[in-house]
Specification:
This is Glutamine amidotransferase domain-containing protein. One of its GO terms (cellular component) is cytosol. InterPro entries: ChyE-like (IPR044992), Class_I_gatase-like (IPR029062), GATASE (IPR017926). Pfam families: GATase (PF00117). The chain has 294 residues and is of the alpha/beta class. It has two domains: 219 residues, Class I glutamine amidotransferase (GATase) domain (Rossmann fold, 3-Layer(aba) Sandwich), CATH 3.40.50; 49 residues, no CATH class. Helices cover 41% and strands 19% of the residues. It contains twelve helices and eleven strands. The strands form two sheets. It has a nine-stranded mixed sheet with strand order 2-1-3-4-11-10-9-6-7, with helices on both faces. Strands 5-8 form a two-stranded antiparallel ribbon. A hairpin with a 2-residue loop joins strand 10 and strand 11. It starts with 8 loop residues before the first strand and ends with a helix.
Length: 294
């Protein structure tokens, strides 16, 4: 894609705790923020990309930087539970409120959607229909979602990488529901608050299938406890198939066994929402992003 000749400034907000970052690097070689940095550099070559860890007590922007000085902020996934009052959740929610107040457009996946929801006055809870693991199935566009540029190019129903044990309970006032499915009512939404705008999804358009497999392995005990697998060996067998499909995305036999189509197996389609956000920003600019969907 192209983001014209100007140099874009992106900020990746990685709310994983240091321990979660360590485990993810051991599992797949990169933290959630590093995954975002990699894909943003592919989508917008030449963009200046910074990272901040807002859950950390010593988190700070680079000297001289301000939130308003960035073209967009990207919120990663995280194991934080936003319904718990902890120093990490308070710092992360306060950061997102500052992003809204700055007027800088923001995008987030998984916990990123949940952080924006709580920051704007909505609520989050544990998944009431059980965890969504590996892939969110039959995610369906709402009427508003069919018209919103975040989901441009998605079919009426699709699957996507999805790993979460919490969900949005209630969107904040003025938010727009864009997609949902049988397991998770809020799969995509636009949130406006305090002069800012956020586009987000509960699933993970930014991750590859290798990262799906890594997440399954990290959460193997939870998968067994939830009744989604009979043993850790069952989880490993499933994760191995996902890993194999990552290495050979054209293997129709693996896609068939896993029940996946090109919306997941083709990287460009899997990244649809993140691509749409960056392309909308390039096309409309900061001011235009504020009025999309109104």
């Amino acid at each position: 894609m192209t983001t014209n000749d100007r140099e874009w400034r992106f900020l990746v907000a990685e709310s994983e705790t240091p321990e979660a970052r360590r485990k993810r690097r051991e599992s797949v070689g990169r933290s959630s923020g590093e995954t975002y940095l990699g894909i943003l550099r592919e989508l917008s070559p030449g963009a200046a990309c910074d990272r901040i860890q807002p859950a950390d007590a010593d988190a700070a922007l680079s000297p001289g930087a301000t939130l308003a000085g960035y073209d967009a902020v990207f919120l990663t996934g995280s194991p934080l539970h936003l319904y718990e009052e902890t120093p990490e959740t308070r710092r992360t929610v306060a950061f997102m409120r500052a992003v809204f107040a700055s007027g800088t457009p923001a995008f987030g996946s998984c916990a990123g959607l949940q952080v924006a929801t709580v920051a704007a006055g909505g609520s989050v809870r544990p998944n009431v229909r059980g965890r969504e693991a590996a892939f969110g199935r039959r995610i369906t566009l709402t009427e508003a979602g069919c018209e919103h540029p975040l989901l441009a190019g998605r079919p009426a129903a699709y699957d996507a990488p999805s790993i979460h044990t919490d969900e949005v309970e209630a969107l904040p006032p003025g938010a727009t529901l864009l997609a949902g499915n049988r397991v998770t009512a809020v799969q995509a939404a636009e949130i406006r608050f305090d002069g800012g705008v956020f586009w987000g999804v509960q699933y993970h358009p930014e991750i590859g299938l290798d990262e799906v497999a890594g997440a399954l392995r990290r959460q193997a005990d939870g998968m067994v406890e939830a009744g989604l697998a009979r043993s850790r060996d069952d989880v490993e067998a499933y994760a191995q198939q996902v890993d194999d499909l990552h290495r050979e995305p054209d293997r129709r036999d693996l896609a068939w066994r896993l029940g996946l189509d090109e919306q997941v197996t083709v990287e460009r389609l899997r990244q649809t929402e993140l691509r749409n956000f960056v392309e909308s920003l390039a096309r409309l600019g900061r001011a235009g992003m504020q009025v999309v969907g109104r």
